[in-house]
Amino acid sequence: MNAVCPTSPPREGEADFGFHELFFSRTDPRGVILSGNEVFRRVSGFGWSDLLGAPHKVVRHPDTPRGVFRILWTALGRGDPVGGYVKNRARNGDHYWVFAVLLPVPGGFLSVRMKPSTPLFARVRDIYAEIAQRERAEGLDPAEGARALRDFAAAAGYSSYTSFMAAAMGQELAARDARLGRPADARTAQLIALNTSLEEVSREQRNLLRSFEALQSVPNNMRIIASRLEPSGGPVSAISENYRSSSQVISERLRSFVSGPDNLCDRVSRQASKALFLIGAHRVLSEMRQNFADATPVPGIDWARERQTLRAIETQAQQDTGTAMEQAIAHAEVLGRASAEIRRQMLGLDTIRVLGRVETGRMRGTNTQLSATIDQLDVSHSDIRLRLETIMRLSEGIGTTMRMFQRTQRMA
């Protein structure tokens, strides 16, 4: 039996439920409620006769932006698991917040929900209020609302909503364990740390691309300086042209895995984040299934079938986690190799940079601008090398951690 820690009383107008409680509901493909648990019924304030056969939006609160549901339903429509914060409304008008874990199941969808409490949740409440107000005042449509939510996730440092969702899952699970006085779960801690590494890789890659883009102006500056210091076709002009062509090759290579649709960076993040989310979902599903052991009989609900459904979804989640991990590991290995290749190509640029430095020394007394340009290259090259080394280290760490997860999955 889970220990229940004391919690602060609910605010006025807020429905009361504990951190030890989990909501459960299952719907058909249209969102019509087929089953649920006693926590869902009690907190919503509806009777079973009102819930079974009713659309799930019977508990929808207008303060939850429509853009949230656009994101959730789009993911479910693709057959992907998804999560998100949702503000619901009870029958008497009270509200209650949940972090919802939603998964497609045969014949519809399944949702397990827990009480959120993290600082990230507090930030989400604020952005939801802002977007919901815009929906009412400006007629913001669901697609625009969904875009605003993705922009919020990006501004908060997440490369995608999938990554944001995985981070929220890990943080909420860790906070719930702490609230319930449970020992910290090692896999949840790894989940949080790994997601942090993924976001660091994304940031380093974006910064790396910006660093290379900034270098594109250097050869032009060198050519302008050369035209003042030497005859046409002189050594500085040749050096600037060699640098321009070599740096463009590297820049194009970078764009292929940092920017553009379905780039390598996004593939690593998306698959790893999906695996991390499924690991957290497995924890919640397992606990929910165990709760059905003491469920009170309800006309119209077959608890044995619900336990069987949850068991099947747990098994599928494990299999899907393994597949996502394998893909994430493969992408991370490609990313590491691509970074190592760019680092090797950087040696060629370094050679050109050294030639520029030598030429600067030869032209003493007339080379102030040229010297400053080469100094700029020194700083930029050092920054790029450090970022490449960081990406390679993080990519290797992500692959290693995912392999550890795989071994744990096989042993479970």
From TrEMBL:
Domain of life (superkingdom): Bacteria
SUPFAM superfamilies according to UniProt: PYP-like sensor domain (PAS domain)
PAS fold-3 domain span: 36-104
Pfam families the UniProt entry points to: PAS_3
Stored InterPro entries: PAS (IPR000014), PAS-like_dom_sf (IPR035965), PAS_fold_3 (IPR013655)
Family annotation (Gene3D superfamilies): PAS domain
Protein name, UniProt field: PAS/PAC sensor domain protein
Source organism: Rhodobacter capsulatus (strain ATCC BAA-309 / NBRC 16581 / SB1003)
